[in-house]
Amino acid sequence: MHAKALRFCVSVFLLSAAAPAPAGTDNLVVMKNFDYAPMQLTVPAGTTVTWKNLDGEPHTVVSVDGVFRSPALDQNDTFSFQFTKPGTYRYVCTIHPKMVALIIVK
């Protein structure tokens, strides 16, 4: 590979590696294939997390300790919650109880 082409490839790689994630995707949890993804998310206190249902079936987002509760979310519906206090927040889909995940707030 020519030195000029190599420098260009390295520059593109470094720029793309340093680029921030697209807006709105950093604290997004998707519901797809009857799972939450990611199944564990760590965020600082004050962060708003958004869940989006990509399945054709409805899902819910319900914390096991009663801190937050979404309505049934149809495909492409979203639910958001701001985590103001540090802690570990476990949640489940009450329609499909095998769907479990957690948010860790630092």
Main sheet: strands, sense, barrel: 4 strands, mixed
**By CATH's scheme, which homologous superfamily applies?**
Cupredoxins -  blue copper proteins
Secondary-structure arrangement, i.e. CATH architecture: Sandwich
The average pLDDT score comes to 84
Strand content: 35-45%
Provide a count of the helices: 1
Instruction: Identify the CATH class.
Output: Mainly Beta
What does this entry look like structurally?
- There is one protein chain.
- The chain is of the alpha/beta class and 106 residues long.
- It has a single domain (21-105), classed as Immunoglobulin-like (Sandwich), CATH 2.60.40.420.
- It has 1 helix and 8 strands; from the N terminus they run αββββββββ.
- A 4-stranded mixed beta sheet has the order 2-1-4-6, with no helix packed on it. It has a 4-stranded mixed beta sheet with strand order 3-8-7-5, with no helix packed on it.
- The radius of gyration is 18 Å and the shape is globular.
Summed up, what is this model?
The chain is α/β, with parallel strands linked by helices and 106 residues long. The chain has one helix at 3-18, and strands spanning 28-32, 35-37, 40-43, 47-53, 62-63, 78-83, 87-92, 100-105.
Write the layout of secondary structure elements.
Layout: H1 3-18, E1 28-32, E2 35-37, E3 40-43, E4 47-53, E5 62-63, E6 78-83, E7 87-92, E8 100-105
Parallel strand pairs: 1-4, 3-8
Antiparallel strand pairs: 1-2, 4-6, 5-7, 7-8
